[in-house]
């Protein structure tokens, strides 16, 4: 009954503006986009299953001698002593991740939970192909003189809709052409849709700004960064600590939108958060808990509480479930121990990880990882990845887009223009006095 009502609502959506497309909420819109994309391309939506087995990362770090702490004051004597003597340091091997195994499935949104230093960012970096870094690091910052709407419009142009090009190549029948027209209309208004989804309506005509130019607030700038990542048909989305600087309502809206994107568009979404609220935690399908580089749990959210109760830990009614999970494996876990538990409680992260590797939940994950090798699904994913170009725009359209943005940025930099004009006039007057 719910699906029937939803399909009935999607037929009434208007393509006139982003607000009209978002009138019934993100779930209805994403359901419409998925149906039109499948009709236009003539195939199911591409899916990517992320799997990793016994993943370990370690690094050699230099540890200074404790006696060096006495010479921390930047005095001339201490600085001279540092240059003339060699500090007593020794190298220590630190394990960042230890034999982590898991799978992030398409159509689901997974919470990556852990204390700072637990290995969340390292796991995301290696899964996204950014670890180790072999080339120079470049920071892709916002253009401070562009407005929020212009920033997102540029991201939409260069992130281009490759599925539209694929659909244009088919043009098989009337149903395909009707779906293609609907996708064109939605694509033209998609920047406005993203503005609506992330609550940027009030600042969409405000310049982004930076430390020297006043613009949007820090939380709004973070949402602009998240909005830029929404463009382009990405099959996997990894988001690390996106809630920093955001209030709970904004975080809930973002995660709720990502949940809808994952479910309707068959994407794989992984979000790392430090202390999610109960409402935000309830939006996730799965959760992976990392502690000191070890996976102490990876499975459905609705089974995590009962799993740790079997280990002798109970979450009090006044305690948030996410905070309870973060306290396990630390000195605070004694508050949750069940006194009547017959066996010894695990205390170290390695002990929690050893218990989890023997659990039925972990065995189910291993079975799913072994059985997901469907040849047809693998072939569809391979064909999809081969068709995705490195650059979504061709040379001339890309050049036109970049020139338009650069002219816009240059025109708004009034101090630079005035300074250049004055410099040219002064230099001209100086040269004219020579003759």
UniProtKB/TrEMBL annotation:
<dbReference type="GO" id="GO:0140359">
    <property type="term" value="F:ABC-type transporter activity"/>
</dbReference>
<keyword id="KW-0813">Transport</keyword>
<dbReference type="InterPro" id="IPR003439">
    <property type="entry name" value="ABC_transporter-like_ATP-bd"/>
</dbReference>
<dbReference type="InterPro" id="IPR043926">
    <property type="entry name" value="ABCG_dom"/>
</dbReference>
<dbReference type="Pfam" id="PF00005">
    <property type="entry name" value="ABC_tran"/>
</dbReference>
<feature type="domain" description="ABC transporter">
    <location>
        <begin position="81"/>
        <end position="317"/>
    </location>
</feature>
<protein>
    <recommendedName>
        <fullName>ABC transporter domain-containing protein</fullName>
    </recommendedName>
</protein>
<feature type="transmembrane region" description="Helical">
    <location>
        <begin position="415"/>
        <end position="434"/>
    </location>
</feature>
<keyword id="KW-0472">Membrane</keyword>
<keyword id="KW-1133">Transmembrane helix</keyword>
<keyword id="KW-0812">Transmembrane</keyword>
<dbReference type="GO" id="GO:0016887">
    <property type="term" value="F:ATP hydrolysis activity"/>
</dbReference>
<dbReference type="InterPro" id="IPR003593">
    <property type="entry name" value="AAA+_ATPase"/>
</dbReference>
<dbReference type="GO" id="GO:0005524">
    <property type="term" value="F:ATP binding"/>
</dbReference>
<dbReference type="Pfam" id="PF19055">
    <property type="entry name" value="ABC2_membrane_7"/>
</dbReference>
């Amino acid at each position: 009954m719910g699906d029937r009502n939803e399909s009935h609502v999607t037929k009434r959506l208007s393509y006139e503006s982003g607000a009209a497309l978002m009138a019934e909420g993100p779930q209805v819109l994403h359901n419409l986009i998925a149906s039109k994309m499948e009709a236009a391309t003539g195939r199911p939506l591409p899916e990517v299953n992320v799997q990793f087995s016994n993943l370990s990362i370690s690094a050699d770090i230099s540890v200074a001698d404790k006696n060096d702490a006495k010479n921390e004051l930047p005095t001339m004597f201490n600085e001279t002593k540092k240059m003339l003597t060699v500090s007593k340091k020794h190298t220590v091997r630190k394990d960042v991740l230890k034999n982590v195994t898991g799978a992030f499935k398409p159509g689901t949104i997974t919470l990556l939970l852990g204390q700072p230093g637990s290995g969340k960012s390292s796991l995301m970096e290696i899964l996204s192909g950014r670890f180790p870094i072999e080339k120079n690091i470049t920071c892709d910052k916002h253009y401070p003189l562009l407005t929020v709407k212009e920033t997102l419009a540029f991201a939409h142009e260069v992130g281009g809709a490759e599925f539209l090009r694929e659909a244009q190549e088919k043009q098989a029948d009337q149903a395909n052409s009707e779906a293609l027209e609907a996708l064109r209309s939605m694509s033209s208004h998609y920047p406005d849709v993203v503005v609506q989804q992330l609550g940027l309506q009030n600042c969409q005509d405000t310049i982004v700004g930076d430390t020297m130019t006043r613009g949007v607030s820090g939380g709004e700038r973070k949402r602009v960064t998240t909005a830029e990542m929404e463009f382009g048909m990405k099959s996997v989305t990894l988001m690390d600590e996106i809630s920093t600087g955001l209030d709970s309502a904004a975080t809930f809206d973002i995660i709720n939108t990502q949940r809808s994107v994952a479910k309707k568009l068959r994407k794989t979404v992984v979000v790392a958060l430090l202390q999610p609220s109960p409402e935000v935690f309830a939006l996730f399908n799965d959760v992976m808990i990392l502690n000191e580089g070890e996976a102490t749990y990876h499975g459905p959210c609705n089974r995590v509480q009962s799993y740790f109760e079997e280990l002798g830990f109970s979450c009090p009614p006044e305690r948030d479930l996410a905070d309870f999970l973060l306290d396990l494996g630390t000195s605070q876990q004694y508050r949750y121990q069940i006194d009547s538990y017959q066996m010894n409680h695990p205390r170290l992260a390695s002990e929690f990880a050893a218990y989890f590797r023997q659990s039925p939940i972990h065995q189910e994950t291993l079975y799913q990882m072994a059985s997901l090798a469907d040849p047809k699904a693998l072939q569809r994913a391979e064909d999809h990845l081969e068709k995705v170009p490195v650059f979504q725009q061709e040379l001339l359209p890309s050049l036109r887009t970049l020139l338009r943005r650069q002219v816009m940025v240059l025109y708004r930099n009034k101090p630079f223009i005035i300074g250049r004009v004055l410099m040219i006039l002064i230099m001209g007057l100086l040269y004219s006095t020579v003759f």
